[in-house]
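Human:
Care to share another protein and its fold?

Assistant:
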Amino acid sequence: MGLSLPVPLPVTGAALRAGALEFVVLGGHLLLYPTGVCQEKLVATAATARPPVLLLHGFTDNRSVFVLLRRALAAGGLRHVEAYNYSPLTLDLRVIARHLARRVEELCERTGHERVDLVGHSLGGLVGRYYVQRLGGDTRVRTLVTLGTPHSGTRAAPFMDAHPLVRQMRPGSEVLAELAAPSPGCTTRCVAFWSDFDSLMSPVDSARIEHPDLLVENVQVTGIGHLALPAHPAVIAAVVRALDGPAPRAVTGPDAASVA
């Protein structure tokens, strides 16, 4: 849910540290935000050993949120990484997902790969999941990684319900009902990172994927808030490993900042 301000967490030492980290990340991201407003230029790419990765930002955000994650994923030239900016004026998640479908087809054609990996933060994860489950995207998406995505809907920030995209992220919305419907034979592997300090997920475990037809691993993150998920070194390392092979079972930070 992008740059929305966090709601209060229970006042503990870990919560204070997570909150402080959130404001540091927010400050840095506000400085970088103008650099990600424009859609990046698409270029011809050389063949890479691993599938290309397409990054999907959250509500009110843009591709600048992925500066650190993108660098880590592209390290060593093993994979081509791009970020997709969807229009901030779009009012329906399903429209964004249809545009994503066209972008994925173009990316496959340009890179010579049959399948891609998607990494979505917050709303971006729902867009990727809708494409995979409802638009046949599982034939193109090898792995879908979501970071702080309201898979079961979030009740946070009720004052933003006037926006149609926010209403689609509420429990019981038509979009979430479509995602809860049967998806037999879906071949995409899903890895959902959820944090017990994510103040924009209410309840926090709404960022888990619970669906009997999907190949899912839910990864718990500790001590890291919503805005820090795509920027924290421990989470970034875990995402890289999730795309390289089996995902980690848990992520801890910011004090320990380690991955189990």
